[in-house]
Amino acid sequence: MADIVKMKSRRESSSDEDSGRLAKKPRTVHPLTYKSVRIITQGDIDSLYPLIVAYIETPSLADSITDFAIDMDTWPCNIVGSGFGDSNPEVSPHPVEDQLHAAVESYVRDMGLGDGALQIMLPALEWKKRQLRDGVQESRGERARHEKDFATSASAILLALCKNITTLYLGSLGWIESPFQLYMLLSGMNRIPQPGLRNVTRVEAIAGATGSNSEREHAWVSFQKHFNYICRLPALESVVLDGFADKSCVNPHTLPQSASSIKKISIHHADMSSRVIGKLLAVPKHLEELSLSLSKLRLFFGGPSQIFPRTVGEYLSRHRETLRVLDLDMDISNCGCHGYDSESDSDREEGSRHRPNPVSSLVRGLEQQPKPRAPSPSGSSDEAWLLSPSLPVEVNLEHGNIVGSFGDYKSMTHLSIGIKTLLGPTQDGKLAEHPPCRLIDALPPSLEYLRLYGYERGENADIDEHVNEFMEKREERLPLLKEVKGVDGRVEPESSMYKGQDDSTWQRPKRDFGWVKA
């Protein structure tokens, strides 16, 4: 009997060990299962075709992708004189069967981008198939044109296949209309049968961060153009821009008003006009956080943009019910502009005079075709979102050349701001003119944290008077205020730390947006 018990015990022990070994056996992961993908180098472009084929054949492989990075400025086909060379692709390209290629073409037709896009995408895919099978003899210029059409088409297809992307890293998207731009725009507008990017919560602009710009120069982009592609994405909450100068004057866009779910905007080391800032601030329905620093990097051409604090303040006031955190670094003493945008309602004027259509000819071509569209989550007209002129801005003349009062803001708990942005520019150790309200009156009752940039006691008697009054009345008027910085010691804003052409200028950090396995 004892022997039987021992044998049973050994069998149970052996069974437990086998179960443990089975439990510890690593799960087999498909080699094309990624968490992050990028389309920045020629190798990335060469990886697109086999990746798309695999994802169309097995759609679940694309479900693990959450991060998507693209920068067209770094593509060899967009760089004059650049060779294609050995690309070292992440996914090895190989000839594809006709049946699988036909499946890719069928998927592209079902995307619903219209005949204009199909006339670019289908020939581009056919060119890639021939290149992989037999090679294509063509000039460098012809190769660049075909590569560009293929890369923009394949990027759009991959974006459509990846349903679970939460973070988009967008560099330059090119200045020529492309299927990629079209897909992003129509997805946000719900103008296609199965719009993508439904789960994107964060967009970061990365132009210049991949090595295409000097680290001490601005990357030139159109802020409005970027916003036009992303602002209607239904889950979008956060937008980050760093190290940019605005090119919107070259290609202005009319943006939708109060139509976006964006809650947080962060803009740093930037050069942009207050008019553009105003347009961006008018896009969110309910903005909760804004961080804005207009530091100057080296300018490729021209001088710095004009900043009128009043314009920024008027657009900010649209969010007085919801704005919780505001970090406003605008060095108005250096901008040379102490007034307001006489065309701060320029969107309205553009709409009434010209009514510009900001969508591309590809979209206008699509409008001629009866295409199915997904229902708009808001129930409102998507065309109205896109084409409606901006709401007029009420210019409060008593605000003069300051950002205005935050005294009626209902939710603000954290405020970081230049003292001159609140009280106005200085002259000969005094305020150039009396502000319309006292410092203590310009602060919201809900404030818990205050940081004043650029103040030093003794430099300006008028400002000292405002600060002294604030310190005397803070407990009574601001009972929730727990922390104050910039009164006992000077706090320099970001914009004053990087000036000139020397080594003190801010350097854009290089970033590696690599392929990451899931």
TrEMBL record:
Compositional bias annotation for Basic and acidic residues: 10-21, 509-518
Region (Disordered): 1-24, 340-385, 491-518
Superkingdom, taxonomy of origin: Eukaryota
Protein name: Uncharacterized protein
